Amino acid sequence: MSNTLTQLTIAQARDGLSNGDFSATELTQSCMDTYGAARKLNIYITETPELALEQAAASDARRAKGEALGSMDGIPIAMKDLFCTDGIQSTAGSHILEGFVPQYESTISQNLKDAGSVMLGKSNMDEFAMGSATTTSYYGNTVNPWQAASGPDAGKDLAPGGSSGGSASAVAARMCLGATGTDTGGSIRQPASFTGIVGLKPTYGRCSRWGCVAFASSLDQAGPMTRTVRDAAIMLGAMAGHDVKDSTSTPIETPDFEAVIDQGVKGLRVGIPKEYTAEGMPEEITSLWQRGAGWLREAGAEIVDVSLPHTKYALPTYYIVAPAEASSNLARYDGVRYGLRVEGNSLDEMYMNTRAEGFGEEVQRRVLIGTYVLSAGYYDAYYLQAQKVRTRIAEDFTKVFEDVDVLLTPTAPSPAFTLDAKMDPVTMYLNDIFTVPASLAGLPGISVPAGLSQHGLPLGLQLIAKPYDELTMLRTAEVIERFAGFDLPVFSGREA
Amino acid sequence: MSLDRETVRRIAYLARIRVDEDRLDKIAGELDGILDWVEQLSEVDTDGVEPMTSVTELTSPHRVDVVTDGQCPDKVLANGFDTFDGFFTVPKVVE
Amino acid sequence: MSYRIVGETGEWEVVVGLEVHAQVTSESKLFSGASTEFGGEPNSHVSLVDAAMPGMLPVINEHCIEQAVRTGLGLKAKVNLYSVFARKNYFYADLPQGYQISQFEFPIIGAGTVILDMPDGTTRNIGIERLHLEQDAGKSMHDQDPRRTFVDLNRSGVALMEIVSDPDMRSPEEAGIYVRKIRSIVRYLGTCDGNMEQGSMRADVNVSVRKPGDTELRTRCEIKNVNSVRFIMHAIEVEAQRQVEVWESGGQVEQQTRLFDPVKGETRAMRSKEFAHDYRYFPDPDLLPVKFNQEYVDGIAATLPELPDEKKQRYMADYNLSAYDAEVLVVDRETGGYFETVLGRGDKGKTRDAKLAANWVISNLFGALKAESKTITQSPVSADQLGQLLDLISDNTISGKIAKTVFEEMIATGKEPADIVAEKGLKQITDTGAIEAAVDDVIANSPEQVAQYQGGNEKIAGWFVGQVMKATQGKANPGMVNKLLKEKLSG
Ligand SMILES: [Mg+2]
Ligand SMILES: [Zn+2]
Fold this sequence. Notes:
The complex is a heterotrimer of chains A (496), B (95) and C (491).
Chain A: H1 2-5, H2 10-19, H3 24-36, E1 44-47, H4 49-64, E2 76-80, H5 107-114, E3 118-123, H6 165-172, E4 178-183, H7 189-195, E5 198-201, E6 221-226, H8 229-239, H9 257-260, E7 269-273, H10 283-298, E8 302-306, H11 314-329, H12 347-358, H13 361-374, H14 380-400, E9 406-410, H15 425-429, H16 436-441, E10 445-452, E11 458-465, H17 470-484
Parallel strand pairs in A: 2-3, 2-4, 7-8, 7-9
Antiparallel strand pairs in A: 1-3, 4-6, 5-6, 5-10, 9-11, 10-11
Chain B: H1 5-14, H2 24-38, E1 62-63, H3 73-77, E2 88-91
Helix pairs in contact in B: 1-2
Chain C: E1 5-7, E2 10-23, E3 60-61, H1 62-74, E4 82-83, E5 85-89, E6 99-103, E7 112-117, E8 123-135, E9 139-141, E10 148-152, E11 159-165, H2 172-189, E12 201-210, E13 221-226, H3 229-248, E14 256-261, E15 266-269, E16 282-283, E17 290-291, H4 294-301, H5 308-319, H6 323-329, H7 333-343, H8 354-371, H9 383-394, H10 400-413, H11 417-424, H12 432-444, H13 447-454, H14 461-471, H15 478-490
Parallel strand pairs in C: 13-14
Antiparallel strand pairs in C: 1-2, 2-11, 2-12, 4-17, 5-6, 5-16, 7-8, 8-11, 9-10, 12-13, 14-15
Helix pairs in contact in C: 2-3, 5-6, 6-8, 7-8, 7-9, 9-10, 12-14, 12-15, 14-15
Bound molecules: magnesium ion and zinc ion.
């Protein structure tokens, strides 16, 4: 029983719960059992089993009284450890926040709580969401449940992508039915592609940032990571909404995302941006992309070649803007009010010791870069120029969306790589080459699993839509999903 | 442009991150690699282009001026290091 | 007279610019819902936003925006319909975010002018460069513990207006008058209580010196956080003196941030940092630009009270007051209001003598309040009562001299002037017979003085008046005494 329950999608579990086929407690217990058998994946920084069972029991009690809350009621999920959770350690994957117990609940986790979902634990992630492999976590790397069936990497441990790698692996390995992620430059979409799940980054402003540890404020967005497009629609519905506590949250209604996803793509114009290729990108990704376009054409969409001329500048722009904001956002980690303190003989020494020991290498690197590009004499050449190029990138999209309804691109330039792969920082950054442009423009994007690589690893396709037009994006994603006929192999367990 | 040890030392101090002398060269090299790569932005013609200061077209929402928060020193101090008598504490500062 | 420092190489001119930090009058903080109340238990007026907990976000207090616009209008300054909050990044114990949210490139208020009334009757125009909104920091206490500094975040996030002047002031006195004028304006507007003791107003003072006639500015020093007008003036004096000595001894004044020690009467450099500040300002991505339209500004302009400059002009034009008197009376809204009540303005046909009223408020009332350390709102004598006292003088019920006695009693007891006059029998004697008798009596008893007077010493007339007043306990009508004396002595 327990193993089959974890195979359910959110939509299926919703129906099973409402039919009384099983209880939220049974469903939750199954998820916990599955994880118990696969701790080696290192999904969670903090597990919350007591809370999960308590929330599941409360959900069952509500349902018994006929007061079930909706689609997410009783659904077990993993919470990225970037979200502050009241009374539960929240680390952002960093040593500097080890032992930090927030006295408040982030809006996103609160919204999901209010929808009745069950939190299994705080999932692992790259430190402060800075990374593309979940290898920069202070709490050890997360392992991708997938392994290559053939090729040089066969049998090796793979990275789940990042930064939301814990959430991605948890969903892929059937340890939860859905998970929260955050995406600053691709941190939901790229790990979704690497682990064969659906990952959706909403329009900037759709989900509140309040209570979510900030990486780069003008880019950070929370979103769902699920096994199906329908599940993403359901979960996004529970997460999204205007929040007066976040000045950048958009005051608009949250539509019923699930209601439209079956509407198909007949009559839609789908743009194929010619700049979305990368040096050394495997041919299999290009052909999958063409296959995806073919499916959409077959389903009645019109495929249009388009150009986003500033695409190649998106990544360098991102690596100025995001570190600049991060260098300032991370200044609050100073050893005074929470988290780690390493003493020193003066205030400055205490700051320097604390931050040297509390931040990992990648975080330090980005804070230093960010500090540099904002500093006197360099601001105009780097930061200001990057913000101008960012305007150019956003204009590219605006222009293209006068002609098309949605864009189709690959999600990442490669399938999952091995955990021990040696990469210099810039090579690692190239993972986000296709996801970063939409982030800079604040547009919604989704990665849908669309096929397997020649060595049997999942590959995703990305859809990008106009601001606040997640509906069109979801409709199109559902068609890709249907045509791909994609079904993940059952995770068989790799006991530690 | 190329980053020297002195510049790394200066920005590390601005960012209050202790960088030991023996790591200065390595870090300078890494940062230099990143800066070389982002240098390509200078080739984009941005004459007359406004820098993007916010992603949305919206303007800042406002709060009405009423007291709705505070009076929660326990929450504020809950995670503090070496707090004393309601105060946060830091190593003694001589001005 | 220009202020000059005389050094060994001759005279020096001092150049001063001020950055006045004025706490915005508001219930809650600039970006959080915590109270701005002064004092309180440590870290009690603190929200999780003010304590910079991870993931906390700022939301602008609309009242603070309105207060800044009001102040801008009061400073006759340009109101910017588009402004941007920026982060000023630096590390300090009382700055929990590691940055201060302030305004940099796009402040809410642009250039304006403040007019100073100098004691010699001239005026000086001081340029305002800008006014921007920013958050206050918390408070560090360095002297409570041998090894630790204590940090209280109660002030963290309180809204401040930083009013930046041009380097237009040329003496400590001008700087003092400028700060008083700014304080008067914000108090009129109700945008800051101007309370320097509680730190609601404090100034960073930029000082440099140069040779008279030079057009170039020399290196300046910034004296941080000076919190009284007297200290501001004193700090300028000693800092300018110090700089003159540095230049004259062949040295270079270094651009520095300094602190003023009022006890020692000196400024000293703040503990120098290995590297200079580099604040790395950039637009705060947690906030969107602040935009409003001209109607919003006009709406605020329509609710602006009469400001000290206009009130002063009105007092001079309508009441014929001297510039000095008018200026003293417009120092704050309460004083102006008190004066106008004494005057009986608007109370049909009952406008009292303005010069008399002004004299009584400025000399007698202010003197009495000062002696009792009270403010005008705490005055034991109401404006109505003082008005009634003036009526008693005008209708000859009492003399001006007796009125002073009555006033003393009013200050002491708060009683009505008419009651005091009745109780103490202070009513002026206007009965000719009674006065004549007293005059005759004095003349009869002073043959020597009468002889002197008649011998041409007219100055002695005053002595006779004094004697008669003494005999009548001051109650005789002085005019009648004079007249009768003159008649009888020459007769
Ligand atoms: Mg200043
Ligand atoms: Zn300031």
